[in-house]
Sequence to fold (300 residues):
Amino acid sequence: MRRYIPSSTALKCFEASVRHLSFTRAAQELHLTQSAVSRQIRNLEEFLSRDLFIRLNKRLVLTSTGAAYYKEVVPLLDSMENASLRMLHREDEKTTLTISSLPTFASYWLMPKLVAFQKLHPQFQIKVRSLDDAAKIDPESIDIILHYGGDHWPRAVSHHLLNEQVVAVCAPSLLDGADSSSFSAGHALEYPLLHLSSRINGWPDWLAAHDLESDSLAGPAFAHFHMLLEAAKHGMGVAILPTIIAEQSLLDGSLIAPFGAPIDTPHEYLLSYPGDKADLEQVVTFRDWLLNSVAGVSKN
Fold:
């Protein structure tokens, strides 16, 4: 059955010509010559047996027929483009590795490692999702989660990644030129204390580890670690941060840790996956690689 569909080149030339009302500018956008665009428009008008443009010297004016056709054609072109893009980015269930992780953990700890993994295993298409709500995890669409303690999946297989350490940090500017070389943990209480809203025991636990007490722990609170990190870097006060989050800022000097060495917490980070995905190639490969990577760092 014959389909009354003009060439895609003619349609692309028509769409660009309507937007620019110029064959010349349409040709520049499409990397064609002006005469080629003009010829495609003539072919389209002959195909439709309708004038789409009125040529007035060097100006183009869209006819009412052209305007009506444009209104119908553009959504179709958009739909074709979107369908093609979906095909280009189509995920193959056999090679896609979908990881769900706490956002800050992914940004400050996982991302630098993924570069090395992708170079070693380019056959896998990596997709990282934010683990904002453990209750909404869909085991069918996620292969691995990297999370902070606790059991997020029933019948999941879990592996210990690393124990958590935290450190009290601040911006150098907060000390206002004070010599921090002789600072002790107690000096932290001389500055505003910054809090993570979801960890109300952060400061009490840190103080208890240093045999300290305080009558008041009031201070600004933030919903996410990256907010807390930025607040500390901008000199708002002293923050208790996991070392994996504070590490890069301590290395580049935007944060300092004058109040003592990191301390251990009873918490850990885990790698988990559904039991029925334990034999998937991408799960096994990533699990083994990450656990070996962490073990190698621990031995150094």
